[in-house]
Amino acid sequence: MGDLVLDIIVKFQLAAEVAEIRIQHNCPRDLPLVTGDIALIDRVLDNLIENAIRHTPKGGTVAVTLQRDGNTVSATVGDNGCGIPESAMPRIFDRLYQVDSTRTTSTGHGGLGLAIVKRILDLHQQSIQVESQPDRGTTFYFTLHVAPV
Question: What is the pTM of this model?
């Protein structure tokens, strides 16, 4: 999974540099294999990292971390961007919901990313958690089971 994260970070590196955003990662290469559909997990990480970059101001940081926790590998994608207001938190995984509807057409994003993330993790019988503070940033967490040997 570490290699997958590194591939996705490379994909977004130029966009992050143009936006003057730094991407940090802590993805040990010796993590065990996890159970999951690689293309779908790629989509989860892609959506979370893209969102983090999009909502982080110039000079900000996006951090991606993987670590083993017993029989799971946990993934964290966080930023020090604009954050999500508490009033919006219950709906952020709803299809087509956007915290700020004025961004829909200007960014070309229609509010599907987090709904897709949640659905993919539901299919993997996993959940996603989020912590956010307005003007301080947002962090998403999810886990995947270690594959049987």
Answer: 0.90
